[in-house]
From TrEMBL:
The lineage of its organism: Bacteria, Pseudomonadati, Campylobacterota, Epsilonproteobacteria, Campylobacterales. This is Peptidyl-tRNA hydrolase. One of its GO terms (biological process) is protein quality control for misfolded or incompletely synthesized proteins. HAMAP family: Pept_tRNA_hydro_bact (MF_00083). It is an enzyme of class 3 (hydrolase). The keyword Hydrolase applies.
Length: 185
């Protein structure tokens, strides 16, 4: 299985809403004691544990699919899991699905174009900005103070869910780990 966290490289984006996928992969690397692989030809940071791989594409969000496709093809991986931020879900939501549309998310759009739509999505709700014209600045801004207080717990739960996907069906993981509404206080 290839587990991908979507995000943008560099310290400027490290703690932004758009980088929640990177945050989950970083935590999984620690938890699973994954070993870093040489990955210059994959345009990403690639790690391995057991017979599974963790990837943080370093192509910037809009070209994530290029990195994912390169790793998938080279290692002949069938099953892909993509962890990403989702504007259509309230902050702290955790949902799972296979396939579907990209909903305007450029990282998913790139992934769809490069490997097809048939991959598992770990959807992490980040909420919406007040005005539609603020989407770009919203996803590229840091989580607010209230959200930051719950970030560690939420990322940890997402990690548990992804680890569970290694041994259980999507339906079982979804039934156990779906969070429909997260209480900030």
């Amino acid at each position: 299985m290839l587990i991908v966290g979507l995000g943008n490289p560099g310290p400027k984006y490290e703690k932004t809403r758009h980088n929640i996928g990177f945050m989950v992969v970083d935590e999984l690397v620690k938890r699973l004691d994954a070993q870093k692989l040489s990955s210059s030809s994959f345009n990403g940071e690639l790690f391995k544990f057991s017979n599974h791989y963790l990837l943080k594409p370093l192509t910037f969000m809009n070209l994530s699919g290029i990195s994912i496709a390169a790793v998938k093809k080279f290692y002949k991986i069938e099953e892909v899991v993509v962890i990403h931020d989702d504007l259509d879900l309230p902050f702290g939501t955790l949902r799972f699905k296979k396939g579907g549309g990209h909903g305007g998310h450029n990282g998913l759009k790139s992934t769809d174009e490069n490997i097809s739509k048939e991959y598992i999505r770990v959807r992490m709700g980040i909420g919406k900005p007040e005005h539609k014209g603020e989407v770009s600045s919203y996803v590229l801004s840091d989580f607010n103070k209230d959200e930051q207080e719950h970030l560690t717990k939420w990322v940890s739960l997402a990690c548990e869910a992804v680890e569970s996907l290694l041994e259980h069906s999507l339906e079982d993981v979804s039934a156990k780990y779906t969070i429909k509404k997260f209480q900030l206080k």
